[in-house]
Amino acid sequence: MPAASLTTKTALVTGSTSGIGLGIARSLAAEGANIIFNGFGDRQEIQKLQTSVETEFGVRTAYHNADMSKAVEIEAMMDFASSFGGVDILVNNAGIQHVANIEDFPVDKWDAIIAINLTSCFHTTRLALPYMKQKNWGRIINLASVHGLVASAQKSAYVAAKHGLVGFTKTTALETAQTGITCNAICPGWVLTPLVQKQVDARAEKDNVDNETAKKRLLAEKQPSGEFVTPEQLGALAVFFCSTAADQIRGVAWNMDGGWVAQ
Known about the structure:
By secondary structure, the protein is an alpha/beta fold. The protein folds into 2 domains: 10-190 and 230-256, NAD(P)-binding Rossmann-like Domain (Rossmann fold); 192-228, no CATH class. The protein is 47% helix and 13% strand. The chain contains 8 helices and 7 strands, in the order βαβαβαβαβαβαααβ. The protein has helices at residues 19-30, 43-57, 71-81, 107-135, 156-175, 194-207, 211-222, 231-241, and strands at 10-13, 34-38, 61-64, 89-92, 138-143, 181-188, 253-256. The chain has a 7-stranded parallel sheet, with helices on both faces. The longest helix has 29 residues, at 107-135. 43% of the residues are buried.
């Protein structure tokens, strides 16, 4: 078992039953943090996931199925977290995507993306801060996106939400600047999550190519490294943000994007 530096802490990671959220949850558990999972999926599979993390890292886990588009369910999840003593590390990761031109963008899709990708982070943060202030320690990590820094066509709602989340991160950091609480954003480029795999599949169908070729074409358009960022790499950055070395890193939007924004 790795040396544990977060053994007294509890981390709530939204959207953590797969992809980036799961990678971050596992990285925090490896440092000794207890984990509260959130996300959709088969309950038996989620239970297996919990058992696996508990066994591998010797931590406690819990799960709450709050729909991150609903404030009342988020409030219930944050109340549930009190059974672990409160949330020390909040990772706002839950997100959805829809691609369409602005004039064709379904209004219900816009509302859902803004609710889950942005507004949910306001609700979790406002409910986590009193406990963090009481302890004078906390880490809020917002999973924004490279699209919180630059735009792409046909992703108006996602880009708007992620730009908003970067701004929200800065405001939270300023309001907590003289406390032991930090708030920062991680801005990944392409990560091969289920969300991105759907875009790869759509690209393969559109171009009539195999999946590997579609991946290469997707990366070539934006990500100079030609490689996907991994959930494990993002998890390592989240662990760093939780360390004492990061005490004075406040309000940053840290892109891990294979050179996307450097262009």
